[in-house]
Structure formats: structure tokens, C-alpha cells
Amino acid sequence: MKMITMTATLIMTICLILILMLNMISKKSFSDREKSSPFECGFDPKSTARLPFSLQFFLIAVIFLIFDVEITLLIPMIISLKSSNLTNYSMLIVFFLIILLIGLYHEWNQGALNWAT
């Protein structure tokens, strides 16, 4: 136990020393308005550099990602159907699909799937 504590202390000390050295040696960059503005051949930009981000689009993308991962989890279950107990397997699939449908209903009920708002 003493060896593990000494090793952990040594590792933490080395990490702390490296972090402190990095902060002291690193090139300091000062950000000002000119450096953060977009460069358009020396002229002022005609519009803002950052376009407004659609939160609705982001929410749809996250929902798609969640359901895509769940569908990816269903594919190996279909392949392993031959080597498993049919009763346990069907209960697992039904439970999984019920959770998937409840999540879809919740998102639909909250209005997250309405694109034109």
C-alpha cells in the first residue's frame, strides 16, 4: 500500500511540475478586438463573423444521434437471436423498444420534433 501511495504522489508531483513549467514557458497571447475580428483584405466586414446558431437544429441532431445509437444496439441483438433464450430475448427487445418509444413520445410531446416554430 505504501508503494502505491508513493507512486501516486510521484506521478502527481511530476504532472504538477510539468504543468507549472508549461505555464511559465508558454507564449502568452493577448487577444484583442483586431485579432478576433475576421480578416477581409483590410476592410471592415459587411456582416457579423458568426452566424446565429439554430438551437432547434442542434436538438434534432442530438435526438438523431441518440436514436441512431439505440438502433446500432439493436443490430447485434438480432444477430444473437439464434444463440439466446427466446423468452429472455423477447422481453429484452420489448423493454428496449418501449424505452425507445417512450423517449420518442416525450420528445414529440415537448415539441422538440416540430421544425417549423
Question: What's this model, at a glance?
Answer:
67% of the residues lie in helices and 0% in strands. It has 117 residues and is mainly alpha-helical.
SSE map:
Blueprint (H helix, E strand, L loop, with lengths): L1 H24 L7 H4 L18 H25 L6 H25 L7
Helix pairs in contact: 3-4
Structure notes:
The protein has helices at 2-25, 33-36, 55-79, 86-110. By secondary structure, the chain is mostly helical. It contains four helices and no strands. The N and C termini lie far apart (61 Å). Helix content is 67%, strand content 0%. It is flat. It has a domain at 55-110.
Number of strands: 0
Give the CA-CA distance, first to last residue: 61 Å
Segments where pLDDT lies below 50 for 5+ residues?
A: none
Name the average pLDDT: 78
How would the global form be characterised?
A: flat
Major pleated sheet: none
Number of helical stretches of at least 4 residues? 4
Q: Level of helix content?
A: 55-70%
- CA gyration radius, whole angstroms: 27 Å
Briefly note the structural class of the backbone: mainly alpha
SSE pattern:
HHHH
Beta-strand content estimate: under 5%
